[in-house]
Write a structure and sequence with these properties.
Elements lengths: L3 E2 L5 E2 H15 L13 E3 L7 E3 L3 E2 L3 E3 L2 E7 L2 E14 L4 E22 L4 E26 L2 E8 L3 E5 L4 H16 L6 H4 L2 E5 L5 E6 L5 H11 L3
Antiparallel strand pairs: 1-2, 3-8, 4-8, 5-7, 6-7, 7-9, 8-9, 9-10, 10-11, 11-14, 12-13
Length: 230
């Protein structure tokens, strides 16, 4: 995949890493071209059900009283097992997009536990993303460019929630309990907080590039017909 383009035409590597599968799912919407605005469509694409490298993914910090856990996943793989897409034209050139994705994955996870007193400790582990289904609604706009499409995310939820499985939860509880003896920390709830993490989504206005080469010729032609971009 090529890097996402910024609103000024530049590519943003950071945004791309978080939303490549989502951009693909929101972008692919085949249908027959017509003079009237297209009706809502319901779509699935087998070509998108594959593995994606999502290295350097951002994870929102976990805060529990005076304890903050900064999470990061420097190396990981996301597998989309199946998906469904609904597009609803809004009449202004944009589309309301509803995506349902069944996914799973695994990767490295680092956790930096930082207390209000400034004490910090780092733990690392392999995290598993168990098979689960995620639903997401947003509003997008498409622009045809020479070798693909720019997909502008006009509105997205601030985050998505994912269930994870990792030994870090138990290890961090033990570490926090040890520090609590000296710092008077409340470690209750840390284990539960690390079983479901928040993954931030890009800000409205982020632009992502979908290469035409990612689609079959039939899919690309149908996509252009549906969006009436050519």
């Amino acid at each position: 995949m090529r890097d996402a383009r910024s609103s000024a035409g530049r590519r943003s590597q950071g945004a791309r890493g978080r939303l490549v599968p989502l951009a693909l799912l929101l972008a692919l919407a085949p249908g027959a071209g017509a003079a009237e605005p297209p009706e809502p469509g319901f779509f699935q694409f087998e070509s998108l059900n594959r593995s994606y490298r999502m290295d350097d993914s951002e994870v929102a910090p976990v805060r529990q009283g005076p304890v903050t856990i900064h999470l990061a996943s420097p190396r990981n793989t996301l597998v989309i097992r199946s998906h469904s897409l609904t597009l609803r034209p809004l009449g202004d050139g944009s589309y309301r997009a509803s995506v349902g994705v069944e996914l799973m994955g695994s990767g490295d996870l680092t956790a930096d536990l930082v207390t209000a007193a400034g004490t910090s400790s780092r733990l690392e582990d392999l995290v598993v993303l168990p098979r689960q289904r995620v639903a997401l609604d947003g509003r997008v706009r498409f622009e045809r460019v020479a070798d693909g499409w720019d997909v502008t995310a006009l509105s997205l939820p601030p985050k998505i929630e994912l269930d994870i499985q990792s030994r870090l939860a138990g290890s961090l509880v033990t570490l926090c309990d040890q520090m609590a003896v000296f710092l008077g920390l409340d470690c209750s709830g840390i284990g539960r907080s690390l079983s479901r993490v928040d993954v931030p989504l890009p800000e409205p206005g982020s632009v992502f590039f979908l290469p035409e080469a990612e689609l079959s010729p039939e899919e690309a032609a149908a996509f252009d017909r549906y969006l009436r971009l050519r």
